[in-house]
Amino acid sequence: MPDRPAAARLAFDELLAALREVADRFAGPEWGCAAPEDVAGALRVTAHLLEGGLVGHFEDDPGYPVFRQIVTSTRKSLGDNADALYYDAPVSAAHAYRVAGRTAGAVYVSFTVEAGGAGGGFPARTAGVLNDTGFDVDAEGRFEIFLGGAPRPRNWIPLDADASRVTTRHYFEQERSPAVPPCPDVALDITRLDAPGPPPVPGDASVADGYRRVARYVRSRSLEMPRPGSAAPPAFVSSEPNTFPDPVPPGDHPLAAADAAYSMAPYVLGPDEALVITARWPTCRCANVSLWNRHLQTYDYAHRRVSLNRVQARTEPDGSVRVVLAHRDPGTPNWLDTEGRPFGLVFWRYFLPEGPIDRPRAAVVPVAEL
Question: Do 353 and 283 meet the contact criterion of CB atoms below 8 Å apart?
């Protein structure tokens, strides 16, 4: 009799089949992709998701967690950001952990615990949050916090029974993007408190599990996401082009910062049009505005001005900020480069805001009038 196929071989073939299904469906008419550029965009984000799955989930064990960078200037997904560094690591309520790191000049640092979505799946909710107002930072920017285990009065996040990952955010307000290498060294480390011995030696079953986590990661962020127009958006997302909703906290929306407020709207512009947005920065720890494509990938912030923070933006004498989206440089301050894309997303973030936040107001005008 022939030998039974290796579990790792079967799981590898399952990953290939999942990628083929994503290419056929997610990058096809079912998800509104017909034009070559639309198909290419969907296949590009698929490649970035595959890389993210391999980097973050192939070798992934909450018993032996390691922080890995979620997105980079060349691996974009999930609403990445030119002004932030994001890392995550697997966790489980079966363990308790010590996390150490550095602020490295960031103006805001936080940790959120994601619940659900184990095995590479998309998390169901945010189950805990701790920002730098709730943990101690020394004069050199070093800190340590604890996850799970016995309650602590400070520097601690409990782990719910379905806790699956811890996500970190380091936000910067500076002229140069921290997400373009060389990136600031945040020196993150996570250690189980019960001092386990070495992990098991990789074998057929564990390698198969790794490939299945990667396949699950890619599928859950493509084929298992709502089709365009099939689900009501969150309160901070507008379905009307060029019109923003009131900035609001995201609640326990997965992969969101519960201590922030967001406002997002699609833009639609003709070849000779510009979108002029008037807004005010609230009193907050940090804030920015970013351009994304339909797949929640930032535009090319390594080579173009596609986002603005409060340091980069020029403020008007009355305290407002006037941002101009256009396909070419209109010669005005605060130009955001659309890369010539007639459709995209504009996303405003405000962290630890104090008091009400003015809704950004937008109007489409001819570029020639600017």
Answer: yes
Residues 26-75: tens digit of each pLDDT: 999 999 999 999 999 999 999 999 999 999 999 999 999 999 999 999 99
User: Which is nearest to 65 in space by CA: 160, 150, 188, 149?
Assistant: 188
How far the first Cα of the chain sits from its last, in Å, is 77
306 and 336 in contact (C-beta within 8 Å)?
yes
List phi, psi (to 5°) of 278.
-110, 130
d(Cα 321, Cα 351) in Å, to the nearest integer?
A: 17
Distance CA 10, CA 13 (A): 5
For the domain covering 64-196, report its CATH number.
2.60.120
Are 91 and 166 spatial neighbours (Cβ–Cβ below 8 Å)? yes
Whether the Cβ atoms of residue 272 and residue 298 lie closer than 8 Å to each other: no
Domain coordinates in residue numbering, the chain: 1-61+199-225, 64-196, 260-369
Those residues with Cβ within 8 angstroms of residue 27's Cβ, 6 or more apart along the chain or in another chain: 33, 39, 42, 43, 46
Sheet containing strand 163-171, strands side by side: 68-69, 84-90, 163-171, 108-115, 125-131
Instruction: DSSP for 292-325, please give it.
Output: E-TTS-B--TTTS--EEETTTSPBPTTSEEEEEE
Residue 3 burial class via C-beta count within 10 angstroms: exposed 0-12, middle 13-18, buried 19 and up = exposed
pTM of the model: 0.95
CATH architecture, domain defined by 260-369:
Sandwich (2.60)
- pLDDT over 90 (residue 195): no
